[in-house]
Amino acid sequence: MKHLLGLILFSFVSLVPANAQRITEGYHELLIVTADASAWVNEFAPIAGWEVRGSGTVDAGWLSLWGVEQSASYTVIGNPGTERGFIRLIEFDGEASDYIRPNGQSWDTGGLFDFNMRVADMNATRRALMDAGWTGASEPIQFSFGPFVVKEWLPRGLDGVRLAVIERIQPPLEGWPNMKKFSRAFNATMIVSDIEDARRFWRDGMGFRSYLDHKAPSKTAGPNVLGLPHNLATEIVRDVSIMHPNGENEGSIELLAFEGASGSDFSGRTDMPNRGLARLRFPAEGLVEVREYIANLGYPVTDISNDLPMSGVGSVNVFVATAPGGTKIEIYEVTGD
Q1: How confident is the model at residue 19 (pLDDT cuts 50, 70, 90)?
Q2: Is-contact 32 160, C-beta < 8 A?
Q3: pLDDT band at 12 (very low <50, low <70, confident <90, very high)
Q4: Quick one: fold of 26-98+277-336?
Q5: How do beta strands 276-283 and 328-336 pair?
Q6: The pLDDT of residue 81
Q7: I need a labelling partner for 34 at 20 to 30 A (CA). Which of 271, 278, 279, 318 fits?
C-alpha cells in the first residue's frame, strides 16, 4: 500500500548492523484467523484467481506457541505459479473470537492494517469484491508518484480483513508473469503511534533497510485512498516507511503514522485466536542469534519452538516477536524437509 496520493517519493537504503542481517527475504506468508475458511476458498480465491495450496490440521506445537487450547485447521491459498506471498487461513474450533481491529478506521493504531496485491483490472476487481460484500474506505483513487500512475483501493470484507489492491496504469507493469487477476501478496501495513520506535524494531532488530520514506499531507483536498475527510486531507500528515531486508518492495512491511488524526488503539488485541489479519511469517538464518538480538533491544519474544511442521516449507524452528503496535511476527528457520 503506497498511500502517498500524488506525492513524489524518495527512497534510500539505510545502514543496518551486520549481525542483525539474518533475515534475507520478505515475508513468506501472512496468517488470517477466520471464522470460515471455506468463504475465502469459495468467494475470495475465484475473484483473485488464486488456488488452494494445502490444508490440514494445525499441529499441537503451533497451538502451544500461540498459547491457545482450541484445536484448529489450516488452509493455504496463493497465486498460481508463485512460491511466496501466500495466505494461511487458520480456523479454530468452537465459537469465533472477536476481531483484532473491529470497525477499524485507517488512523486507528495497532495490529496489521492491510496487505497489498496488484490487480490486472481495477474496475472488474471493484465490481467482483463489492458483489461479494467487500466495501472500501473510498472509491478507487488514481494518483501519480514519481514516474508511476496507479489506481488503489482499500476494501474490507471477510473477517474484517482489509486489502490494498493496486492497478498500474503507466508505465505498463513488467515482471509479474503469474498475475492473471490478483498478484501474490507483496506488502503489509501497520498503523503505529510511535513510528521511530517501529523503525527501530524493523531496522535495528530485524535488520531491514528502507525502500521508501516519506512524510507529507495530500497536496490537494478531496477524495483519498485512506478515507480521510476531504477537507482535512491537506492538513493530516502521513509519515510512511516501507522496509525490507534488502530494501525492496517484495514481502515488505509498511509503517504508517498520522499527525493530526487519532483514534482507537488495537495493539492489545493481536493475540491468537482473535480474528482477522493476524501475523506475518519471515524465514531466517541463525534463529538463536536473531531472537537474542531482538530480545536484547527490549522487544518481546517467545521461546523457540523446535521442529514444527509448516506445510509447503518443511520442519521449522520458530519464535514470535511482538513489534511496536502489537503486531506478531513469526520468524522461522527451516530444519528439514
Answers
A1: very low
A2: no
A3: very low
A4: 2,3-Dihydroxybiphenyl 1,2-Dioxygenase; domain 1 (3.10.180)
A5: parallel
A6: 96
A7: 318
Residue extents of the structural domains in the chain: 26-98+277-336, 112-259
> If DSSP codes are grouped into helix, strand and coil, which group holds residue 258?
strand
- Measured CA to CA, the distance from residue 335 to residue 337 in angstroms comes to 7
Least confident of 16-20, 131-135, 326-330: 16-20
Could you tell me the CATH superfamily of domain 112-259?
2,3-Dihydroxybiphenyl 1,2-Dioxygenase, domain 1 (3.10.180.10)
Helix (H, G, I), strand (E, B) or coil at 320: strand
Cβ contacts of 309 within 8 Å, gap of 6 or more: 59, 61, 315, 316
* Equal CATH topology for 26-98+277-336 and 112-259: yes
Whole-Å CA distances, 253 to 27, 113, 180, 249, 299:
8, 11, 24, 8, 18
